[in-house]
Write a structure and sequence with these properties.
Strand content: 15-25%
CATH topology: Rossmann fold
Number of helices: 11
Shape: globular
Order of helices and strands: HHEEEEHEHEHEHHHHEHEH
Number of strands: 9
Distance between the termini: 38 Å
Largest sheet: 9 strands, mixed
Radius of gyration: 19 Å
Number of domains: 1
CATH architecture: 3-Layer(aba) Sandwich
CATH class: Alpha Beta
CATH superfamily: Alpha/Beta hydrolase fold, catalytic domain
Helix content: 25-40%
Strand order of the largest sheet: 1-2-3-5-4-6-7-8-9
């Protein structure tokens, strides 16, 4: 796959105008107020994994609508804290998997909460355990077009709210320093991490790898890869609903959340990525922290990679980067 998007120097300067609704902030403020009216109800059940250096818990907390959201909470064995925490979100179609898959951040000295993604977990990996009890109107297979005609009904309104509640949940765990919480994820997980960064004003840091869910309109114009292709398929059938679709997505765009973030950030981008095109990632990165003034941010570029990005190379960078901020 050749480089297909803007030239690297154009990407670095890319600051597109996006459709941001006037009531974006009030929409999300009321959404979170409603979610937080329900007790977070964090429940931890110790899980035996056979690993002596970490402790693992099956965690459940109340997400959007009070719906139970599952996850794994892993921490260094014998450490009482207060410890910094990393809240991680998973990629599209994946689930929380098995606890032995998620030990790196605990081994690095953090309390690590991996949030299961509602309704997902059967496309890749070792499975998920959180249902999405909310239905939707006609939709393309996948998740992007569930509730596509109304932002209040859209699937990602629920997921982003779950993500904010995951931060609330980890802050309620004994031994966690609530002032040192980082959001983290790749692809869909990176998009959720950005959304939470725009909705939670006091995070310690944000790490978003090849983030999905950014600059929807451009994504549908320059790639036919899935999952953005779900939106394209829907609009090819529902020809009279195109602007309504983009209006809904304007409440969910990672670029708007990035503008509102105020924590230091580390991004990554792959210049041959047709799943999350580079210009959509740079749209979020270049706008990141725009409302906060001067803000530390960096992006790692992988020129000859596709959506896999940096993988373990990036994780190695993240461990060192976060150690200097937590």
């Amino acid at each position: 796959m050749p480089m297909f998007d803007l030239a690297p120097e154009a990407l670095e300067a890319y600051l597109p105008e996006i459709d941001e609704p006037a009531d974006f902030d009030s929409f999300w403020s009321s959404t979170l107020d409603e979610a937080r009216a329900v007790d977070i109800d964090v429940r931890l059940e110790r899980v035996e994994t056979g690993l002596e250096l970490v402790e693992t818990y099956d965690v459940t907390f109340a997400g959007f609508g009070g719906h139970p959201v599952r996850g794994w909470l892993t921490r260094p064995a014998g450490r009482t804290g207060p410890l910094p925490a990393v809240v991680q979100f998973v990629g599209y179609g994946g689930g929380r998997g098995l606890p032995v898959e998620h030990v790196v951040w605990a081994a690095a000295g953090y309390v690590h909460l991996l949030m299961d993604t509602r309704g997902q977990g059967s496309r890749s990996g070792a499975g998920g355990d959180t249902p999405d009890p909310v239905g939707s109107g006609p939709a393309v297979p996948g998740f992007l077009t569930r509730g596509i005609l109304d932002p209040a009904e859209h699937y990602y309104r629920r997921v982003f709210t779950d993500g904010v509640r995951a931060v609330d949940a980890v802050r309620a765990v004994e031994g966690v320093d609530p002032e040192r919480v980082t959001t983290y994820g790749g692809s869909q997980g990176g998009g959720i991490a950005l959304a939470v960064a725009g909705l939670v004003p006091d995070l310690r840091a944000v790490m978003a790898d090849v983030p999905f869910l950014c600059h929807f309109r451009r994504a549908t114009q320059i790639t036919d890869s899935m999952p953005y292709g779900e939106i394209t398929q829907y609009m090819a059938v529902h020809r009279d609903q195109i602007e309504q679709v983009f209006r809904t997505l304007s409440y969910l765009d990672g670029v708007s959340f990035a503008r509102r973030a105020n924590a230091p950030s580390l991004f990554s981008v792959a210049l041959m990525d047709t799943t999350c095109p580079p210009s959509t990632v740079y749209a979020a990165f270049n706008n990141y922290g725009a409302r906060a003034g001067e803000l530390a941010k960096d992006i790692v570029v992988y020129p000859y990679n596709m959506h896999e990005g940096g993988q373990a190379h990036q994780l190695t960078r993240q461990i060192a980067w976060l150690a200097g901020r937590s």
